[in-house]
Automatic annotation (TrEMBL):
The keyword Hydrolase applies. It comes from the Eukaryota. This is Hydroxyacylglutathione hydrolase, mitochondrial. CDD domains: hydroxyacylglutathione_hydrolase_MBL-fold. Its cofactor is Zn(2+). It holds the Pfam family HAGH_C. The gene is HAGHL. It is an enzyme of class 3 (hydrolase). The keyword Metal-binding applies. Keywords: Hydrolase, Metal-binding, Zinc. It comes from Zalophus californianus.
Amino acid sequence: MGVHRVGAFCVPTVSGWALGWAGERTPCFGLEREAPALRKGFESLGASREDAGCPSSATMKVKVIPVLEDNYMYLVIEERTREAVAVDVAVPKRLLEIVGREGVSLTTVLTTHHHWDHARGNVELARLRPGLAVLGADERICALTRRLVHGEELRFGAIHVRCLLTPGHTSGHMSYFLWEEECPDPPAVFSGDALSVAGCGLRLESTAQQMYESLTETLGSLPPETKVFCGHEHTLGNLEFAQKVEPGNDHVRAKLSWAKKRDEDDMPTVPSTLSEELLYNPFLRVAEEPVRKFTGKAAPAEVLEALCKERASFQRAAEPVQPQARALLALQWGLLGTPRQK
């Protein structure tokens, strides 16, 4: 893919939000609060690059926007041009509130895959914003204006985007690798459901070999300092499964303890870094002896396939979370069963 030829990268960093981050760094991205009755405790951080104490050479700001039950959508802002790019638009009106408050021009939507919780807002957003570019790799994506191909590069001001086809969860899943030149901070990857904190999305359409190549060769070969912005807040369940796979892994134990504290504080666990994921994410550790022993398989793709099957049937030990307001309304009318776990 040639990603290592880039001499310098830049993406927002946050002090203490992930294991091993430099303690002196401060936020360059903000966490946006949804309606208080639906999601509590999500405070806006890093409202501006200057307020956040970012280096003057950094022009990229990422707004992390929790929506639905456990989804994340993102708004990436090029600070100099005030151009904005959205990733995985599920709730368009919520996104436009933030676009308006930030005073930026939304020009493009990058969609990782066609599932409703990542792409359902595209049609409404395109209606509200004529001329909006809706990009992705799968023709099934709602309101798609142009289909992207693996290795294609885009540019938004100083921000470069490399499109990485990562089949596994779906056959047309695209991840987006972003960086800025002439800036010392690490790059970022918006990985949708291809890679999450301590886990990955269910393999629904592609082969185990394709998924293995997506995780280890495409995403796994990115710079280790790459910040990983995934599509869901599934970290606790993922880490509890990782602990089952590798009960002796101290990195899993430490990350799980940290994630539980984040959950208690109603704070997100994104982003992580690729180097961290290699320490505790079993789906990136298929060559490790404890992981192979757990699955009883030796070939990497077979290990991965066995992990996917085990993860699909894994139940968290924690108590079920309380349903959100939307779910309560549905329960009142008998539309849902028991509350879903995270």
